[in-house]
Amino acid sequence: MKRIVLAVTSALIAIMLSFVTSAAGDATLNFGAELNAAACGGKPIIDVTQTVLNDADSGFGGVWAFDNYSRHIKVFQLSDGNFCATTRYEGRFTTIAGVSPSGTSFVSAGISAPFIGGYRATEFAGTLLASPPASTHGNIGTFDYNCDAFNCPGFVDWTTLYFSTTTGFNLDWWGWIYHGGSNGTWVNAITGSTGDITG
């Protein structure tokens, strides 16, 4: 379960993000429909890619992995003055020894495999910064969260790069799929969480 607070590098990954069927049960996550511009509407005002390193990934039993990923952030201003945001993630997780992400088993350290995901926040209010510290378009660089199992001293909430305040930043849709190969597949989504990463 990602902490809620990528430019995709190839057309192949873009296709993967458009519609993914997981090996965990019957779970499917339709990223293409849930995270496209039409799901937000409005005028695009922010379109950036951010690289994040060493982000703690929490499951139902606590932190189970650390993630490195690219995050593609888009923000749209709506006709009523509110905003909608979508994010897409593509990266790799590396497990730590302990409780598996489902909270029902155990996982060993050092399993490294890919994951994808994202979320959509619709109709939140905010005050845009007149001079944001990060560009509103293009690559905004690398952010090392430097997490351990208890805190993330380098964490930066991306919304603070563009807004002085936000209210009502509620997630209308979210989901991630972790492909662990022979160690299983973990799907954590608003529609339900299935599978696991174990071994």
- If helices are DSSP runs of H or I spanning 4 or more residues, what is the number of helices? 3
Oligomeric form: single chain
Domains, number: 1
Radius of gyration: 17 Å
Q: What's the main sheet like?
A: 9 strands, mixed
Q: Could you name the ranges where pLDDT drops below 50 across 5 or more consecutive residues?
A: 3-27
Basic shape: globular
Distance between the termini: 19 Å
Written as H for each helix and E for each strand, in order along the chain, the element string is: HEEHHEEEEEEEEEEE
DSSP strand content: over 45%
- The averaged pLDDT comes out at 88
Helical proportion? under 10%
Number of strands: 13
Structural class: mainly beta
Features:
199 residues; 3 helices
Element layout with pairings:
Blueprint: H1 11-18, E1 20-21, E2 28-29, H2 31-34, H3 37-40, E3 43-59, E4 62-77, E5 83-95, E6 98-99, E7 106-107, E8 112-128, E9 137-144, E10 163-167, E11 171-179, E12 185-189, E13 192-195
Descriptive account of the structure:
By secondary structure, the protein is mostly beta strands. The protein has one domain (11-195). It has 3 helices and 13 strands; from the N terminus they run αββααβββββββββββ. It has helices at residues 11-18, 31-34, 37-40, and strands at residues 20-21, 28-29, 43-59, 62-77, 83-95, 98-99, 106-107, 112-128, 137-144, 163-167, 171-179, 185-189, 192-195. The strands form 3 sheets. Strands 3, 4, 5, 8, 9, 10, 11, 12 and 13 form a 9-stranded mixed β-sheet that branches. A hairpin with a 2-residue loop joins β3 (43-59) and β4. The radius of gyration is 17 Å and the shape is globular. The chain starts with 10 loop residues before the first helix and ends with a strand. Residues 3-27 have low confidence and may be disordered.
